[in-house]
Design goal:
With 139 residues, the protein is α+β, with helices and mostly antiparallel strands. It has a single domain, classed as Nucleoside diphosphate kinase-like domain (Alpha-Beta Plaits, 2-Layer Sandwich), CATH 3.30.70.141. It has 7 helices and 4 strands; from the N terminus they run βααβααβααβα. The chain is globular and about 35 Å long. The chain starts with a strand and ends in a 7-residue tail after the last helix.
Length: 139
Amino acid sequence: MAMERTLAIVKPDAFGRGLSGEIVSRIQKAGFQVVAIKSLRLTKKEAEGFYAVHAARPFFGELTEFMSSGKVVVLALEAEGAILKWRDTMGATDPAKAAPGTIRRDLGTSIGSNCTHGSDAPETAAFELGYFFAGYELI
């Protein structure tokens, strides 16, 4: 399996509940290298730009409102097969359907408040990493 990079986000619900440290700890215990990390608060416009691929979907407004409702932590992660590995570590979008021991199962409270985001493909990861990190931050 090839070394990959992916984006992870600790969402506002998890940040607000003081779970950022727990989630970063789980990321490291899962074997990811944290290449870059920062905390920020997205504006509504920045959230809309990040989630532009979902603009036509009915949940777009609610999603971008939520993602701009509080601070987030964005991380550039590296590991062999990082994209799939991070998605497996997070668990299913719906915490009730996520596998035991996954972040979303253990810490999420609903489909909307599921603590984390992760890229779903190499192209998505490239866009998402570039959205939050300048090239020099990923060296």
